[in-house]
Amino acid sequence: MRGVILAAGEGRRLGPLTADIPKPMLPIAGRPILEHNVRLLAQHGVREIAINTHHAGGTIVKHFGDGERFGVTIRYSHEKTLLGTSGALRALRDFLSERFVVLYGDNLTTCDIGALADFHASKNADVSIAVVQRENPAASGIIAAGPDDRITRFLEKPKGGEVFSTWINTGIMICEPEILDDIPQGVSDFGKDVLPALIEKGKRLFAYRMNDRFAWIDSPEDYERTKASW
Fold first, then answer.
1. Rounded-to-integer distance, Cα 163 and Cα 16, Å
2. Rounded to a whole number, what is the largest CA-CA distance in the chain?
3. What is the per-residue pLDDT for 10?
4. CA dist 58 to 118, 141, 204, Å?
């Protein structure tokens, strides 16, 4: 598979921490978050990676270069205007001609990408999403799935009365290239625009309930907690 790491977000909720660097370049355990993700993909045999950039994108390019020292090849897609989590993939359509894995570059995980890929193949899925449980899912996308793990409902950032599940999207997905046809032109977001529409169209979306480590960094407090525990 090829891989895409989404790293264009501005990280505004982290305030001055991301004034001069992209959120995925914040250091944890001696390495930028983004480097942990690049190394994770390389560990699981994903050697061709695309990274989208926006805010302070040169910081990312300077650190990773062509990817050789990490055992991968990296291409960059710089967005003058943010395209959103799914809009970013349309700009990489020529690169994503085969099954691919997507990582949100500002999260940390030890997800077994190989096991996720095996799950995806066994389900004959269009999209497989790694999910974990979060006690308060208000800042995440939540899923409902049947006994066969097929996703029947997806809602991004539910409000109080809208919460129907504590299983959340980790931003780790394996996708078939055909889903690119369902991503609208321009700015679009997986959680708000694409995943609910794919479910509505009857596409085969499945939830992979992972047991690996996962940390979200939505706030300065999350960052400090993750630094202390990772």
1. 31
2. 48
3. 82
4. 35, 30, 37
- The pair of structure tokens assigned to 63 is 């650190």
With contact defined as beta carbons under 8 Å apart, do 195 and 154 qualify? yes
How many angstroms separate the CA atoms of 97 and 1, rounded? 10
List the structure tokens of 227: 């630094």
Can you tell me which residue has the tokens 């525990």? 229
- What kind and span of H or E run contains 58? helix 57-64
Per-residue confidence (pLDDT) for residue 180, from 0 to 100: 98
Task: Give the span between the Cα atoms of 181 and 125, in whole angstroms.
Answer: 16
**Contact, 131 vs 167, CB < 8 A?**
yes
The answer to whether residue 97 scores a pLDDT higher than 90 is: yes
Q: How many residues does the chain have?
A: 230
* Structure-block tokens of residue 99: 């099954």
- Structural contact between residues 67 and 38, judged by C-beta atoms closer than 8 angstroms: yes
User: SS3 helix, strand, coil % of the chain, rounded to 5?
Assistant: 35, 25, 40
Measured CA angle at 48 (ends 75, 216), to 5 deg: 85
- Checking if the pLDDT of 83 tops 90, the result is yes
Instruction: Note the pLDDT tens digit of each residue in 149-202.
Output: 999 999 999 998 999 999 999 999 999 999 999 999 999 999 999 999 999 999
**Token output for 212:** 């690996």
Amino acid present at 218: D
Q: What is the amino acid identity at position 26?
A: L
